[in-house]
């Protein structure tokens, strides 16, 4: 129970920090935010009076901390405010964006797992064999290729040359294939590497020979005594993996011209639409913190020695 | 039936670390396998276990430290069930109670993982697991060196008492002739991958014949070291 | 003279050492025995100043212990050396650290005393036997001529014959060099054979403290008797008729 409270407290600290950092970054970004908003709204050069009006409306004239608090306090009761460009409420648009992004993220994660687990198992069957080296090489390439480049490559091959799949938009399910593959490759690559080293390390544990000598079948030893130990580093890294996934999503959505959190965020940044940017960042932070909380809980149930070390 | 393994030998990286060796042990006999580190005692122990198992003889092994026998992520009861299953035995609470009482670990909570138990209790649990199938031979590799002396002495005493009434033979692998001399009736002295002397404990202690046995005897007792 | 006066060490809320006192003169050997968790390692840490004492005092001839540059011999001989350095570089570390002039005669002399071939020092830790590595560990401890040497389970990684050989070399070096030796060990046989005094540590407290031969002949406490009887049962000691 004490540990749970500690975790929640840690999450609260992280979220506050994220909110403050985002706000400060936008506040101090070069260029006049009021000018950017005016341009986004009216598309033309505007008079000084209009700019002052925008400043007053957005709270830019009240000073950093007042403006920060004016934004944070409604957020605490779940009010994300209104777009400073269109005046529309942020929340419904945000929900629409998420309804495109989350399925894509989950599909990529699933593909990543489906690819990496068998690949790691094949690779570790005979460490150092050509299959192992092949898997490691594939994984290294996968980790090294940036999403924007891979995305363009896939478009070139499957959309332009072969014409099998659509490249732009999100109208049909087929539209999700290329973006999902782009994201999944990076995930599969890093998961394969972690799983492979996790399995190899779990196999060197000093107590394993005793189990074989006791007559426990090799398959049972693999399932009951190697797999749980190999899973620990994977679970630990999944949290970090999520950060890369969020980052990759932004890039992939822009490349494939898909609606979603990524394009929502990029458009909002161009327009200096503070409330929108902050909403995305806060949502991302909440997801990140929640998932890491979950991972912590799973980690502790996998390896209860953690709790004892804490005590 | 005497337990016999013929012509055990081990080569590693082109070097012979165990020359062809035949070991025979009578039911219920207590045998010590002694030698300096690197003399090949553990190698012989493992080769013996593998050969006897392949021949269908019941043989169990207790490693030096409980860390080498128990998975820290699995509960004690998991280890116990798993061992029963590996031996093809049905779960039997009476048998478990017998062994636990004999080794004084009845107070341990089986739902705990190994690190929830003291090291002495962990080691006795490992010994109890080794005895589940009433093996013909129990091989112990330096069973006392990872434990505190008081705990180690208790453990050996409890095991002695338990084995007294059974036909299970004991092979005690150790570098410490002092320990072996107190626990076994027959000694196998190893040197450079060979058994160089095989005789009753009393005979080796009084008149060691080989250089290896002489060195072990001379350094047996802390208070009577040769000058 | 090492004086440990009423020291207590706390780790969080737990007390790991409580009211521990003893003294150790030059040229003498004190064995600290007790089970794991009794506070033996903490005691070494406290004497070296690595673990802060909540109360009490530790001094060497009235001054802080660190001023006499005490040396430590560790339990795992190979792990005690940087695997990338030659043994010679590791051995000379105390000399370099104390900005002393390297004295090759002394090195040769110590090597001879420890039955080490000086050529061995050009190897790396993984290229010598454990017994040799431990003797090099002792060499490193003695190279800067410390007046106080702490031994943390110096023999427990060695086999029975090597143990006794190494114990004898330590005793000979002590005769020759005259340092005070504090030996932490779980082996009562070793303590009885080579130490002048024995301190029995139990749950952070000194349960018994006195001359080694007197302790082995007749322990004063129930726990002391248990320790001695266990040593008999494991063959570490022979019954004195």
TrEMBL record, chain A:
Pfam families: BPD_transp_1 (PF00528), BPD_transp_1_N (PF19300). It comes from the Bacteria. It is found in: Cell membrane. Keywords: Cell membrane, Membrane, Transmembrane, Transmembrane helix, Transport. GO terms for molecular function: dipeptide transmembrane transporter activity. The chain crosses the membrane at residues 7-27, 100-123, 135-164, 176-195, 230-257, 277-299. GO terms for cellular component: plasma membrane. Residues 98-299 form the ABC transmembrane type-1 domain. InterPro entries: BPD_transp_1_N, MetI-like, MetI-like_sf. It is a multi-pass membrane protein. Belongs to the binding-protein-dependent transport system permease family. This is Peptide/nickel transport system permease protein. It comes from Yoonia maricola.
UniProtKB/TrEMBL annotation, chain B:
Signal peptide: none annotated. Residues 3-217 form the ABC transporter domain. GO terms for cellular component: plasma membrane. It comes from the Bacteria. It is found in: Cell inner membrane. InterPro entries: AAA+_ATPase, ABC_Ni/Peptide_Import, ABC_transporter-like_ATP-bd, P-loop_NTPase. SMART domains: AAA (SM00382). Keywords: ATP-binding, Cell inner membrane, Cell membrane, Membrane, Nucleotide-binding, Translocase, Transport. Belongs to the ABC transporter superfamily. This is Peptide/nickel transport system ATP-binding protein/peptide/nickel transport system ATP-binding protein/nickel transport system ATP-binding protein. The lineage of its organism: Bacteria, Pseudomonadati, Pseudomonadota, Alphaproteobacteria, Rhodobacterales.
TrEMBL record, chain C:
Residues 2-228 form the ABC transporter domain. Keywords: ATP-binding, Nucleotide-binding, Transport. Coiled coil: none annotated. Pfam families: ABC_tran. GO terms for biological process: transmembrane transport. InterPro entries: AAA+_ATPase (IPR003593), ABC_transp_ATP-bind (IPR050319), ABC_transporter-like_ATP-bd (IPR003439), P-loop_NTPase (IPR027417). It comes from the Bacteria. SUPFAM superfamilies: P-loop containing nucleoside triphosphate hydrolases (SSF52540). GO terms for molecular function: ATP binding; ATP hydrolysis activity. Belongs to the ABC transporter superfamily. PANTHER family: D,D-DIPEPTIDE TRANSPORT ATP-BINDING PROTEIN DDPF-RELATED, TRANSPORT ATP-BINDING PROTEIN. This is Peptide/nickel transport system ATP-binding protein. It comes from Yoonia maricola.
